[in-house]
Write a structure and sequence with these properties.
mainly beta, 1 helix, 5 strands, globular
Amino acid sequence: MQLGTRWAAGSEAPASVPASLRPAIAEVEARGLTGHWTLTWLEGRAIAELDAGWEVFQTASGEIVARPFED
């Protein structure tokens, strides 16, 4: 895993956040959630996790998924 960066929900995402994740991140933020996002990389794919309990990621097949954390 490679650590990326952190930013506050509702603020401009850093340039390192892939364009493919940005619409899903905006949809999660539209729910009124607050907190900070953390961008990490696993097996070459970006994962954005909001500390309010959501994650946005791209699957191996290229699908963008936004969902609450799963235990």
